[in-house]
Amino acid sequence: MRLASATLTMLALAIPAAADPVVVELYTSQGCSSCPPADAMLGELTTRDNVIALSLHVDYWDWIGWKDTFADPAFSERQLLYANVVGSNMRYTPQFVVGGVDRVAGPSAMELFDLIQSHDGATNDVLQADGTEVTVTATGQAGQLIAVTYRPKATVEVLHGENAGHSITYHNIVRSWTVLREWDGSATTVSVPPAGDGYSLVVLAQAIIDGKPGPMLGAVKLD
């Protein structure tokens, strides 16, 4: 999969700014030769106010010759749970999950744009942040309140494996995924520990259906 820079620019400019962010998860690996174009797409999405773009590095490529420096087996398991939702046990890299619902492997920029557009505004005013205090409005749907800590940007020199010899820049690299509490869907508030120096923080509200991740119900960035 190859993406021209003009296409990436079009993606960045075409998505209108909005108050209600769409959560876009990218499952990727430093050891996957098909992933760098998707990593670049995610980087473009991090510039948009109406998108919370998160890069989750999986570990199941590590055996092929390069151990991903950001990989976490918990992210591989999360991706598998998304597959299980549709009765599958297949995982792909790169794979985007949009709004906790739509799964697409290696999309074009326009395919990804269309998915984001279809979810835009779906999480209206569920989460609002004031410092590290997050106010949650009632949705009537149970789920989890989740704190996600991420590193905004890092460049890695890959020495072995499919991407050997390449320098790859990653964006919004998830370093911790913490369930703050199980949530019954009612109005509440939650205090979030600070992210720490060099890291950023978002809070997500996600439905959990039969023990598997469901639709994103809300999302907010913490300053």
UniProtKB/TrEMBL annotation:
The keyword Cytoplasm does not apply. Keywords: Signal. Residues 1-19 form the signal peptide. InterPro entries: DUF1223 (IPR010634), Thioredoxin-like_sf (IPR036249). The keyword Cytoplasm does not apply. It comes from the Bacteria. It holds the Pfam family DUF1223. This is DUF1223 domain-containing protein. It comes from Jannaschia faecimaris.
